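Hi R.,

Here are the chain sequences for the assembly we discussed:
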Amino acid sequence: MLVDRPVLKVGVLGAGTVGSQVVRLLLERAEDFAARSGARLHVTGVAVRDLEAPRDPAVPRELLTTDSTAVATGNDLVIELIGGIEPARTLILAAFRAGASVITGNKALIAAHGPELYAAAAQAQVDFYYEAAVAGAIPVVYALRESMAGDRVTSVLGVVNGTTNFILDEMSTKGLSFDAALATAQQLGYAEADPTADVEGLDAAAKCAIIASLAFHTRVGLDDVAVEGITDVTADDIREAHASGCEIKLLAIAQRRDDELAQGVSVRVHPALVPKDHPLASVRGAFNAVLVEAEAAGRLMFYGQGAGGAPTASAVLSDVVAAAAHRVNGGQAPRESSYAALPVLGLQDALTRYQVQLRVVDAPGALAAVAQVFASNQVSIDSVRQSSYVGGQDAVVTIVTHVAPVRALDAAVRDLEQEERVESVVSVRRVEGL
Amino acid sequence: MLVDRPVLKVGVLGAGTVGSQVVRLLLERAEDFAARSGARLHVTGVAVRDLEAPRDPAVPRELLTTDSTAVATGNDLVIELIGGIEPARTLILAAFRAGASVITGNKALIAAHGPELYAAAAQAQVDFYYEAAVAGAIPVVYALRESMAGDRVTSVLGVVNGTTNFILDEMSTKGLSFDAALATAQQLGYAEADPTADVEGLDAAAKCAIIASLAFHTRVGLDDVAVEGITDVTADDIREAHASGCEIKLLAIAQRRDDELAQGVSVRVHPALVPKDHPLASVRGAFNAVLVEAEAAGRLMFYGQGAGGAPTASAVLSDVVAAAAHRVNGGQAPRESSYAALPVLGLQDALTRYQVQLRVVDAPGALAAVAQVFASNQVSIDSVRQSSYVGGQDAVVTIVTHVAPVRALDAAVRDLEQEERVESVVSVRRVEGL
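And here is the predicted structure of the full complex:
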C-alpha cells in the first residue's frame, strides 16, 4: 500500500520533548501518515546541539546530526522545534530558499519576525504552518485563519498560557501566595526554572499578537501588545475576586473597535476578574481555552491542552499532513492576509470594565457624588455594592462599570481621587467577560 | 483592488434562512471575500421553488430563478442549501459533472449517500465541502478531518442537536414534561411543527455517522448508528438524574474499541446521564458541543451555536472561501479517507456504564448477592448508594458500574431480574462522561 506513494524527505530541527514525540509518531505511524497525506514521509535527519546528551530512545541514534543547516536545506518538509529567535530564524529562511515547506511551533519567532517569514515562504512558493504556536493541540490558528474566513471576528478572549493558569488556579483553590504557587508549578514541571516569559505575560503576548493578526487580517507584532503579568497578583486579590463572584485569569485579548470614537484593533494581556459562570473562569490547571466572537457565528469556544509534548506534537503533525498533501496534490497553505491593515490602538483606547473599590465618607450624598464623577467621564455604572464593615463613619463601596475606553475609566479614577467625599481609592481591577 | 482578481461564478440552491444569509453576506462583504479567497465571487443565481414566496429582502429579486439545474450546472461554485435527499443529490451530482465545486450543509444527504458524492467529486477533480452539516459554525468537520490528521482519535462525544438539548434543558431547569417542553420549543422556533427528525434522534444520528466516518477513516452510514430519541424521557427521569448529580443529555457517541474482546467502531445516539461537572452537562439551550479524545492531543472541546441562519451561513462561507482559493491557487479539499476500514460494531459491543436502581430485600447478604451477579458477568461496580425511603423491609439500591460492553451489562440486568433477593429492577440508565 505504501509502495506506490511518492516519498517526501522530512527533517526535524530539535529533539526536545516535542521533537522526540514528533519523530516517534512519524516512525510508528508511517502507514497512517501515508494514507492521510498521500506521501511516504521519510525522516532523514534530526538536528541537535549535542549528540551525546541523554534523550528519548524513540529517536533513533543514527538520525541525529549536529549539522542543522544540512537538515534545513536538504528536505521537502522541515519541522522547526528549536524555539527562540536564532538560529531558528536563519534556519527557516534557509529552508524556504531551498524549497522546503516549514512547520513550526515557535510563537516568539512568529510574533517577532512573522512578516519576514511569510514573505519568504510566499516568494519560495512553499507552505508555512504554525498551528502549534498557539494553544497546543487546540486548532486556534485554523479556526481564525480558515474557519472564520467567511465571517467577521469581533473579539478573541483567551486563557493561552498554561503555566500562569496553573499558578492562579493553585492560588484560587488552595489560598497559596504567588511565590508558593510558582514553587509548586516548578516542582511539577509546569513552570521553568526561569519563569519570566510565562509569569510576566510575554508568552501570552506573543500568542496574542498571532491571534490578532489572524483574526483581523492586520499585522500585529509583539510590540503592539500591552502586557502585564501575574507577579503582582496576591492571595488577597484572589479572596476579593471570590467575594465578587469572580476568578482572576490572565487573559489574552484581541478586540476590534469600530465606533464613533475609535476604529482599529486593541491587543493586550493582563490579569482580569472573570465572573465564575463565564466559560473561561472554569478553565482549570494547565488547560487553555479560547473564546471567539464573530458577527455571524456568534460565540465559539475551543478548549484543550495548550502545552506538553504530545498535544503540541499532535498540532505539528496535522500541519505536516497538510503540507505533505500540498506537495502531492498542489495547492498551498493560506498566505498571510494583512489586507485589512487596521490601525493598532493603544491601551488607552481598549474597551474594558473596571471594578473600583472606594472608601467613602458614610454621609448622605457620597454615593451621588461618586456616581456623578463616573457620569461626567461618560462611564456608566453596572452595579454598586456597599459594605459597612469598616469602623467609624466610613463605608466601602464596590462599583463595577459598564464597558468603556481605558482613557475614560482612568480619568474617572483620577477624579475620584480628588473627590472630597472619597477617603481613598482602595483598588482598581479590570473585569472581562461580563 | 478587486479588479485584478479572477471572477468565480457562484450559484445558490435554496433561499431559506441559511441561503438568504449566505447571499446577503456574499453581496455585502464582496471585498472581504475577494481579499481572503483571491477571487471575486459573483453570485449568478439563486434557485427557489416559488418565485413569489415571501422571502428575505437581502436576496435581490433579479437573482431568483426556478431553474435549479441551470444554477447547478452553470457555476464554478455551487452552494446547496435545499436539504433532504432529492432533488439535492441529483443537483449536486450534476454540479460535479459540470466541473463545479460544491458546498453543502446537508447532513441527511451525506449520511445516506456520502460515498457516492465523494466518489463523484474525486472523479470530477473538484472540491466537496460540508462543514455546516455538523454543529453549525463549530469547525468539527475540520477538526476531525484535518486538525486530527496527525493523531489518532479514540472517541467523540457530542451534544449535536440543539432542539433536543433545548427541550431537555427546559425539562431540567423548569421541571416541564417532554410535551410541554416540546411545545415551548415549537413556539420559540427551536423545534419544527413535525419534530420527528430531532426528537427521535435521526438528525443527531446523521451527524454521528459523519463524525465517525471522519474520526476513524472508515465508512459509517446512517444505518450503522444505533438510535434512541428523547420522547420517552420523563420529568421523573430528570429528577432522578438530578438526585444522582447528573443531567440527561442526548449524546452522539463515536467510539473506537481496540481490546481483546472487540476491535472496531461503535456509533450510537441515545439519552444518557452525564455528571454535572462534566463539560457536556453545562451545554445550555440550543448550543452544541463536541468533545474529541485523541491519543496525543488528549481531550479537546468545541462549543458554539449548532444551528440557525447566521452561524450555519458562517460555516458555509468558510468552505466557500476554501473552495474558491483552490480554484485560484490549485490544490483540493481533503478527499474522503476510508483507508482504515474498521468494522462497525453492533450496540452489544458498545462500551458504556449503567446506573441500575434495584428494590432489594433489606436483609443481610442482599448486597453481596447483587455484587456477585455483576461480578459473574465481568462487570465491575463503581459506586453503590442505598436509600431506605421505601417503607417496610425493602431498600432501594442505586449502582453505577464501571465501563463494560452493553452485552455484559444487559446480561447482568437479566440475571438481577432472576436473583431472589432482588424484588424488582426499578430503572436502568446509561451513564457517559464519568
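Chain B has three domains: 7-136+310-329, 140-306, 350-431. Chain B touches chain A through 59 residues (CB under 8 Å).

Let me know if anything looks off.

Best,
T.
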